[in-house]
Specification:
It is built from eleven helices and 20 strands. It has 366 residues and is an alpha+beta fold. It folds into two domains: 161 residues, Thermophilic metalloprotease-like (3-Layer(aba) Sandwich); 193 residues, no CATH class. The strands form four sheets. The protein has an eight-stranded antiparallel sheet, covered by helices on one side. The chain starts with a helix and ends with a strand.
């Protein structure tokens, strides 16, 4: 029997997240494992009048590619992919994995090389999003592999996913609009602030947001969503942070990451497991050792770590810091082929702006 939440998810994605209109050129990037949701999305998109292109990724291709590709092939960018990023005005990336550890044996330098090659097209996509030329959203379909990664049964994981998306509520769109209003109140309070101080058992960081703006995320760019975020002033970050949650990259876990910053740059990194991958990715390019994002999770419907940053960076009671590429729409200037989010537990910590506490022990104080 078809899960009614699938149809509801397709409706919210097409009509709220992407707001597809007649004539929109819409690309759905997905895998066959999500066909139940894929078809529901296509039906809603076609009914909305959009022109639909489906890129159904071949399962297992990435492992073969990274194992056998030459240096030239690692640096090749498909003209079709470039055309979609440059010309389509709507895109949905739908994750549906068969094996989350598919790339666990790949040389980290090959992954970093591919990231460097994609830096230009990734930057162009962000520019078009910032200029509102491209409506983009990233979401997930619950598969057995993702459920296993999260240490849940498939049924429990489905409930976890759809609850995080607020699809169990009578009117999910109304709930996301309420979340949007809450985030705007937080952002208004932060407007015009300068110095951010993060202090607690896992963090002792000082950074500046002078001239930068915060943006909210309430179901438009990610689904589920639930965060406010900005790009810190690039050379302003000083101090230390430890990420108690694993940092996940292409299915590989880097455990107990610690970073030390001086003048904005990561001058020392340490991990209990995955040190080689951590160092290789931080050496991707000149911008990879600087922060591109400070985000604060606002989705308290998400109540546990799932080893998937789509959910984990939204987790109420956490912040996330991303090394690498910054967001031009908030004033970010850092350029990199890397944008890697890492999650910090804030349940025994506080955040202040210009000396005023606005977040303590995982809750907003406003």
């Amino acid at each position: 029997m078809t899960d009614l939440r699938i149809q509801k998810m397709a409706q919210v994605l097409v009509h709220y997240s992407l707001d597809l209109q007649p004539g929109d050129e819409f690309a759905l990037v997905t895998t066959p494992l999500a066909d139940e949701l894929n078809l529901a999305i296509c039906e809603e998109a076609i009914r909305a009048g959009a022109n639909v292109f489906v890129q159904n990724q071949l399962l297992g291709f990435d492992e073969i590619f990274y194992q056998y590709a030459s240096e030239a092939q690692l640096e090749y960018i498909s003209p079709l992919r470039r055309y979609i990023v440059e010309n389509f005005n709507a895109m949905l990336n739908l994750e549906a994995e068969r094996n989350t550890r598919e790339l666990s044996q790949i040389d980290p330098e090959r992954l970093a090389r591919r990231r460097r090659a994609n830096a230009g097209i990734f930057k162009r996509m962000l520019e078009r999003m910032a200029n509102q030329e491209l409506k983009w959203c990233y979401t997930l379909y619950p598969t057995p592999a993702l459920a296993q990664e999260a240490d849940m049964s498939l049924r429990n994981y489905q409930d976890f996913v759809y609850r995080a998306c607020m699809l169990d509520l009578p009117d999910p769109v109304a709930a996301w609009r309420e979340e949007d209003a809450h985030q705007k109140r937080l952002i208004e309070w932060l407007k015009g602030r300068d110095e951010i101080l993060l202090q607690g058992k896992d963090v002792d960081l000082k950074l500046s947001i002078r001239g930068r703006t915060f943006l909210g995320a309430a179901g438009k760019l990610n689904f589920p969503d639930g965060e406010i975020y900005t790009s810190p002033v690039e050379d302003s970050v000083n101090g230390w942070v430890r990420f108690a949650y694993p940092a996940i990259f292409e299915g590989r876990e880097v455990i107990d990451v610690e970073l030390w910053f001086e003048g904005g740059k990561i001058v020392k990194e340490k991990a209990a497991k995955g040190q080689d991958l951590l160092t290789a990715l931080l050496n991707t390019d000149a911008g990879a050792r600087y922060l591109g994002e400070l985000g604060i999770g606002t989705n308290y419907q998400i109540q546990r770590f799932s080893k998937n940053m789509l959910f984990d960076e939204k987790l109420g009671g956490t912040i996330h810091l991303a090394v690498g590429l910054g967001f031009p729409e908030v004033g970010g200037k850092n350029e990199s082929g890397l944008h890697w989010d890492m999650l910090c537990d804030m349940t025994e910590s506080q955040m202040s702006a210009d000396g005023e506490v606005f977040y303590r022990d995982g809750k907003f104080t406003l």
